[in-house]
Structure prediction request, 266 residues.
Amino acid sequence: MENLELPLVIFTILTQMAVGMAIFTAVRQWKTVEGYSLKTRNEWIAILGLVVVAVLAAFFHLGKPLGFFRMLINLQTAWLSREILAFGLFGALTAVCFYTVFSKAANGWLFKLTALVGLLAVFSTGMAYASAGLDAIHNILPLTFFFLTALTLGSAAASFFVDESAHGMLRSVLEPSLLVSLVVRMIIPFAWISGSTVMAQTGYNFLASPFHWLHMLILLGGFVVLRRVKGIPSWLPFLLIVGELLGRLAFFALMVSSGANLGGLY
Prediction:
């Protein structure tokens, strides 16, 4: 933390987007699997592609990439190890889903299992970043941010793979997700300012950051657009991805660790 950490920004954004898309695929086919279609196949190609790119990006965060298997040795105590295992399982299930769709043998229960494992993976990411050394997010906030990203980007990206008649279901999730994200991100910096010296510095960092305000502006713009048009415009998911990237850059770069105030008044 306290730097841009681009590999982790890319990893967290893309995996959460992939999980969101898997969730909406499972919801859309809750009772029965849709007949084979090019859109369904392309949707799973996109989900699998996001996971692959995210994992490749994460390798650039490792000091010794060839020793990546060691990340799994602390499953009993480390949320980071659990996160890696969960996303490994999610990636494997995503590949199986794509194969079953491509071979026209898709199974709705497999889609549901994949979505559930994806949710558990996002949960483990939220727990991994709720570090005791970061006063501002040693709480439920990482989980809140990450699940909102999954809902926002997942519902927006899913619009590429369904007919416009199905956009209503996606909008019913996307609109409130944008609104809740906007409200949460408006309130949280001021709540941080009312806390300890270190937490307050995090709040001031956010209020002074163009990343934070541009993210807020994009969230607001997306919500206003959805209130004024039918369906989900094809350009809107790309704009929301930019917004979430800016927000995630702020998350990694602007958090102040408790060590920053060693020797000072608390």
